């Protein structure tokens, strides 16, 4: 189903085509009856403007109706056609409004005698002036419609261009989403992308608090405890007939002989790969520390200056 903008666009183009056909019919009627003079210069110009306008709008309307998505006429081409047609209708409306032919009198002469006026049934001065006013009015109607739609389409294209969508100029008017709203989703289209992580529906772990456990909390925790007990792996029972292992025996699985003290530790026994650098381990042998020298602080009795102050008996 076409969008509302495409329907409005098609209605405007149909109205322009209808009024252009009316102007073209009146101009062709004047060209057939009236003799060419300075007052009838607007007639060939009106025929030219109507022919160009019909060509433009028939092409735009046909491509928009039969190939709305694959329309080869882009937005800039359609704007160019509308601008050119608007300028032509502006010139025609100005020419018709400022011409002296609007208030001219019509005199009919026979082909044999060009000096004696005759009466022509169905066409006189009043009929001519009425048809001229109709031509002038529809010229202004086409001018307002074409220039109004041209300004509207140009404003919308500039707005989309300033929003960062520069492909609006190379996209057709019928295929571009002019009034697309992000909030409205089409039922046949894809769902919107996920922007937030959805919360898990699993059972939340109860928070540890200082409150006493109630009966409901105990009932909720029981299935979880049973499930945990089922997952636990049990070690195989030990063979009671095997002799007990001594306390100081080396652990099982080590078959390498004991290394002497002072030798560097042995690695895994593999050379480093291409992306690894070798690791060097230096072994510093243990050396017992030297004994501290204790200075003798005792006073000798034979010293001259140090006398024993203890009482004599």
UniProtKB/TrEMBL annotation:
The chain crosses the membrane at residues 12-30, 42-67, 79-97, 137-158. Residues 186-313 are annotated as: Disordered. The keyword Transmembrane helix applies. Keywords: Membrane, Transmembrane, Transmembrane helix. Residues 221-237, 287-305 have a biased composition (Basic and acidic residues). Residues 207-220 have a biased composition (Polar residues). This is MARVEL domain-containing protein. It comes from Obba rivulosa. The lineage of its organism: Eukaryota, Fungi, Dikarya, Basidiomycota, Agaricomycotina.
